[in-house]
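Figure 2 data, in text form.
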Amino acid sequence: MFKLVVLSTVLTLAAARPGYSFAPFAYHAPALIAKPEIYYEKSIIAEPAVAHVGTVVKHIPTAVSHQSSTVVHSAAKYVEPIYAPTVKHSVVSTPVIKTAYHALPAYAYAPALHFGHY
């Protein structure tokens, strides 16, 4: 019975200290820290738009008509804009938050040894 109490005490102490084990074959998985990392993902947005392509200038004569002859005194300018359908491209960067898991260094979970200084 005493051996069973000692064995359960040893196993309890081994489980209570995660960086220290009594068994040489025991495997301890490294402790992980979750850190959020921010990445910027670029995407291209295409939307329909109307673009000003050019203008056409027309000269419309203003004339004075006399019975058999026409005399042009001046010409009026008529400006006609030309529009065409097009696609507008915009580059947008959106933040993406991902959680990355990093292992703690070995000294962070190693057993602490204190020699007389508490």
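Caption note: The beta strands are 32-66, 69-103.
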